[in-house]
Amino acid sequence: MKPINVGLLGIGTVGGGTFTVLKRNQEEISRRAGREIIVKMIADKDIDKARSLAGSDIIVTDNAHDVVTNPDIDIVVELIGGKTIAKDLILEAIAQGKHVVTANKALLASHGTEIFAAARDQGVMVAYEAAVAGGIPIIKALREGLTANRIEWIAGIINGTANFILSEMREKGLSFEPVLDQAQKLGYAEADPTFDIEGIDAAHKITIMAAIAFGIPVQFDKAYTEGISKLTQEDIRYAEELGYRIKLLGITKRVAQGIELRVHPALIPKSRLIANVEGVMNAVLVKGDAVGPTLYYGAGAGAEPTASSVIADLVDVARMQTADPLHRVPALSFQPDSLTDTPILAMQEVQTSYYLRLHVIDKAGVLAEITRILADLDISINAMIQKEPGDDEDTVNIIILTHKTVEKNVNAAITKIEALSVVTGQVTRIRIEELNS
Question: Is 205 among the residues known to form the active site?
Fold first, then answer.
């Protein structure tokens, strides 16, 4: 059977890993795909690097448009990233009747609806397993393996940089800044780490998973995003004492009022498997009504783990290339005309439990003032701990764990508590996610 010819856009970390794994496992991959998958062209601005990797039998160019317009190319693999040039190239490849494989979560989270519609009109596929959680096949699990289920919620540790930082802070008792510096030196964090530490990268990924899980359009602009840069060693230590670990979670959940779509640090009971995911590893917990909770764990980034997902998509496209487009797995699992406009909840309407840390003057009547404010706003206390004051200190930390309540009530309570003369500084608020079945 005629080989599948691939045009590779970008030969950086993931592109290089994809080329290497394809070459190393060529026989195995061909046996699974039913035909050879051959890299025919590579486009990269660093043309010397591309040529040194490619050898003499592959066309190398610094113009990506040469690849997407070449009639001999069957599949375009976009690994250059970004939301401008990459979008133009993908749409051009689709217009040329080419299938697309991409790892570009930022692009899909923002423009996926437009891209999938263009592909549908042209009868081609857009595959994107590598866009979420690196080498973990979570997209295939959601699109295919769990299709019998009504998905109830997804919670994921889906940014390795943030998870590494939180793991190091807990294990070594360090504050945020020196651990971030270590992560940058080890290559886990970019020079500008904003996307990772402020939850934006995780929000891209949970947006894509929400669309697949609930049959809604991708809506990154409606995701609530909060990062880890303000977390302190103090709170990580208190969480541990209380039987919790703090993780940056991407969460999407089906509730009566709509869909929750949020990224933020959360306390998770240490007994949960996902709470014990450390370092740069990723994990995604999916709760379906029929199967119950299922956990997917593995490397969320890196050259060859991500290449594993890119090549899995290439094999899928090779297998399904000649199939009637109506019989292929839909891009977002649900048939395009069955997507719904279920609303995304504003964060203030979300219900969960809370960890609150207050720094107060150590005097009689303080607790009474605080508990009265909470009671007036219908916030029920689950547990309360007052830490011992230090030497020569007249202030103490009070830790309050609440039962489930609506976020807007907690916001109102924090405003009133911070206004009390006995409270010094700001109230620290971290959400609690039990993640039970």
Answer: yes
